[in-house]
Amino acid sequence: MRTMLLTLAVVLTMFTVGFSQEAEWQYVTESSATRFYAKPVAQAIQRDKQTIDICLKATYQKAQSCGAISQTALWRFDFKTERFALKEDIGYDEAGIVVYHRVISDDQLNWQTPALKSIGAELYGYARSLYDKALRSAAL
User: Fold this and answer.
1) Which residues of 25-59 are buried (b: 16+ CB within 10 A; e: fewer)?
2) Residue among 47, 57, 119 at smallest CA distance from 92
3) Which long-range contacts (C-beta less than 8 Å, at least 24 apart) are formed by 122-128?
4) pLDDT given at position 112
5) Cα–Cα–Cα angle for 99, 105, 108, rounded to 5 degrees
6) Which of 12, 77, 123, 140 has the greatest number of CB atoms lying within 10 Å of its CB?
7) How far apart are CA 62 and CA 68, in angstroms?
8) pTM of the full predicted structure?
9) Which CATH code for domain 23-139?
10) Cβ contact 56:123 at 8 Å
């Protein structure tokens, strides 16, 4: 029992440290004013609903009207209906101080369909590749 608890503590520590490190963010795409980085969220895939949640970080070339220079957001991608929606976002100023934090309940999500050749389409494609890779790994 003690060994199991110790193992669990080590795994949780590695998980926490892993998600807090900047190196975990992977470059995905950019527009003329924004760069997008992503990392998957643990337990993010729901096979029965065909969805995946991904944490995205956007960095802006100039501060937004609210003062935010970067944003971390949780997005849900639904492959059954081919759409995506923002679940939660946090905006930070240049000093790293939170300037806003918004959480959206599942029944209030504003679903969007990715337009061709758009940032949304690129992010959707990235999410789809992560989802497919996870399903292939689980099948092995």
Assistant:
1) beebbeeeeeebbbbbbeebbeeeeebbbbbbbbe
2) 57
3) 122/28, 122/29, 123/28, 123/29, 123/36, 123/38, 123/56, 123/75, 123/77, 123/84, 124/77, 124/82, 124/84, 126/28, 126/29, 126/38, 126/54, 127/52, 127/54, 127/75, 127/77, 127/84, 128/77, 128/79
4) 94
5) 105
6) 77
7) 9
8) 0.73
9) 2.40.128
10) yes
Percent of the chain whose pLDDT exceeds 70: 81
Give the tokens for residue 17: 């440290």
Residue type, 89: D
The dihedral sign for the CA sequence 46, 51, 27, 102: negative
pLDDT in tens, 103-122: 999 999 999 999 988 889 99
- Residues 21-45: tens digit of each pLDDT: 444 899 999 988 899 999 877 667 8
Q: What tokens were used for 119?
A: 């940032």
The tokens describing 121, both together, are 């389409």
Tokens 């240049």 locate to 94
Tell me the C-alpha distance between 135 and 1, whole Å: 32
